[in-house]
Amino acid sequence: MSLTAASHPSAPSHAEAERIVDAFLEASMRPDPELAATFMAPDVRIVFTGGRVFSHPREATSFNAGRYRWVKKKIDRNDVVVGPDEAIVYNLGTLYGEWPDGTPFEGNRYVDRFVIRGGVIVTQEVWNDSAERILTRQGA
Q: Sorted alphabetically, which InterPro entries does this protein's record hold (predicted)?
């Protein structure tokens, strides 16, 4: 049985929250934004570095397509905090991939913060070093 948002009708446990985030990230890195959306609430709020706000994973995938030729996450860990009505998952690691010109990169730190309520992701916030690395590549 595949993990879907429908299989998690209540506030998640530590392990469930981690599984939801891991399944979402796996779908996101394919990239399969439609599958990724099944782990998110219909009114999800996705906020990328720089305050860019998206309402569906396909918008984030489209943004990343302009920033990277391709990008993947090397996940180091999930830090999970479970409360009475929601779980917060901090997913930490590094990005690797290629810039639009084909130059490879790795070691680009990131932190994603997920809020999970009712078994789905209601908020994703994304921070990473890409802007700093882009400025360095441009000689700034």
A: DUF4440 (IPR027843), NTF2-like_dom_sf (IPR032710)
Q: What is the pLDDT along the chain (140 residues), one digit of tens a residue?
A: 344 444 434 668 999 999 999 999 999 999 999 999 999 999 999 999 889 999 999 999 999 999 999 999 999 999 999 998 999 999 999 999 999 999 999 999 999 999 999 999 999 999 999 877 776 766 65
Rounded CA-CA distance 139/111 in Å is 25
Helices (H) and strands (E) in the chain, counts: 4, 6
The total number of structural domains in the chain stands at 1
Please tell me the distance from the alpha carbon of residue 136 to that of residue 125, in angstroms, as a whole number: 24
Domain range holding 76?
5-137
- CATH code at position 14: 3.10.450.50
Report how far residue 96's alpha carbon sits from residue 33's, in angstroms, rounded to the nearest whole number. 19
